[in-house]
């Protein structure tokens, strides 16, 4: 129980309490695709978070659960390996770390309290010392010792260490001052020296004061013969103002009979002061004094008011006694001004029942609080029980209790501690801690109606026995079994064989195909076979009203849940069948020997049973009638396992402890068994073959795209490759099947443990397999039961091509997917290309997503196949393609030839005919790239190897043309060419003789300057002649 200032427990009977604001765990089940991944089942010890125990080191007697001040850590007291221990959790109680603590004298922690102010400040007591930590439990120191202080300061009646045990603590704050309150008691009696003591921790020397609960009271009311203080609580709402302290005590005043009261003191005044709060006697059935208290817990609401007339003076007291006097009592003040509060026995189990309450908690105020209590009935003292109240006056008991038994500390009774979460009054979430055999911390989300165990469990996980659905797991301890539910990574134990009694029960679990019902079966070894059903995903289970013994059965050899009401149980040459969830059972003849396995078709319309004779039989009416048994399989297994092919209601597969994998089709004209193979896993992945299964222990057919996929778990212990047939190591055989052809591969076993069981959850592109290997559980998600997608052929030439495809995404960076590619001639089926280049590994596979293939025939159609083969085989992706035909070439028959000039402007185009051509494409353009459509002059598809241009080209211009061949298979590359047209010829000139023209020229005078020029010229001429004559020499 968590209070505003204190959460406390009486350690002798180990009550416990805890607050948890939200219960979520970020530990999802990680499924490693294409590889086995270990599912982390609840762990033990320091490395496993102390969720479960180990066989040699058990958790026991959970004591106290307490939040720190800011609710970032939870602390728990318990017994671990026989010694007192304190655990710390930083994930809301899912996992724990064990703290190193001082020596606990007597081996019992009586109380543990966390400061409401400092998140790292803690206190606990072993009854003799009080220890405190200021660093979250990493280190501890002693508070001053009240017993030593009392003697040293000569108290009149000092408490005696070891006799007057400190059983309750609380912390009060008044400004900067901090006060530690302690109450002492003696079990089975009252005595002197007990009382309420206060330590001012913040004062020098940590002095103690005796609050004199026995003597500091009105005259004539002293408790002269002593008392025992079972609980002390500081007023949670106004301690700093009123210094209110409330205590629950049993006393003897030497005058009145021994009685139990709630007593208080305020403002430092005496106890039982009329002006503030008189003592209130607690009476069983409101009439009889209570004398045998061993534990008390007082719960105060959030708006508690110490004024008796406020209307909010109410509190609830939980009492545990040894004299059938325990219960929950309401303590309340009167609004009419009376100073004496009263109590009412609420009789949580009714007037006719006797109940002992070991803890109480709640959330809310006077008007809206919801309460939760734990304890046991005196009619069944070893059975823990929890009750809930929404009106604070009436209580409802749990329908599925937390596991646990009688405490091995103190009284041999089932102590239960409860803790309401912060939103308990709306969410119904709370925790309960138990003691004794199969104890643990349990969780509820429905106000305590049903409980699942979550941590600090006494049970261990020695082995994993069975699995079902998504996901229920059966684990085994030496003497008991547990059923766990794993949802979104959160693991809770939903069922324990201790809930059904018996020293040992062999449990199995199944989930209906629709997922609307979960069944648990005690298969009946050493007892009576019983089946329980849950309609709320395993939260609660109800036993069937009858069992197979009513129809002559005894042991469940095998069983199948067909739907929420129909169950089949395997007998010998018969099937026990119910369609009413066990109201009526019938024995139905099914002559296959001892029925060792069942299967149901995907659509639920057909059932099949397999037996020890290696035969199978089917039923189409829910198991009422069964067909004539088939012939025995080629290999007969005493334990035969059968499954339907996913999506089929006629094809089944069989394996068993004698090995082999076989297929049978009820719809075939002549149904017969066919073996999927008995040879070792193949290496040539394109061959029809199968994996050797020596000891089939699990079989499952998943969803596949492109064919069918089958998984078979081999439980073979040893490998012998030299045997005939070879014996391979234990592993998972995986078959991909297309039509009648099967391809096999093998997935290695995780670790060295032998597989014992396999189940599957079919999903498109992600079949999920769960396997049990030794004491461990693994999951394998197969994302490769799909075809390789988007197989494309590019870069096609006359003799080569490049294959590309999309990588298979398995979402696992540690896995390198490898592929296999080959090409067959479409006409003949002959394989013409394999992996021979260096781009491929030695076994002919590639890790890339493309591959170039050379040396192919010209103009030939090929079928290209691609599939992944490692780590497992996918389904094939295909594409059909033809190599190109030879293109036209530069020959004498090409016209116009490439680079030709003086080509006529009305050209004829021609080329060599190709014998396989069905047409030719021709393009004429003024663009050398042929890219500009506006420059294309002609685009033709021709059936002849020539064509005359039907227009006129320009002279002295360059033109570009190209031609290609179309065959029935493909199209060749373009053959391009360029030519220049002829120049234009000179145009002929025509001369026309014009008529005669007569010109009349008028007589004109010669200008004077003309005559001047003539004269100058004459003079110069004469001068030149003279010079020549004079300069001539006579020889």
UniProtKB/TrEMBL annotation:
Residues 787-886 form the Fibronectin type-III domain. The chain crosses the membrane at residues 1008-1029. This is Fibronectin type III domain-containing protein. The keyword Zinc-finger does not apply. Gene3D superfamilies: Immunoglobulins (2.60.40.10), YVTN repeat-like/Quinoprotein amine dehydrogenase (2.130.10.10). The keyword Cytoplasm does not apply. InterPro entries: FN3_dom, FN3_sf, Ig-like_fold, WD40/YVTN_repeat-like_dom_sf. Residues 1-31 form the signal peptide. SMART domains: FN3. Keywords: Membrane, Signal, Transmembrane, Transmembrane helix.
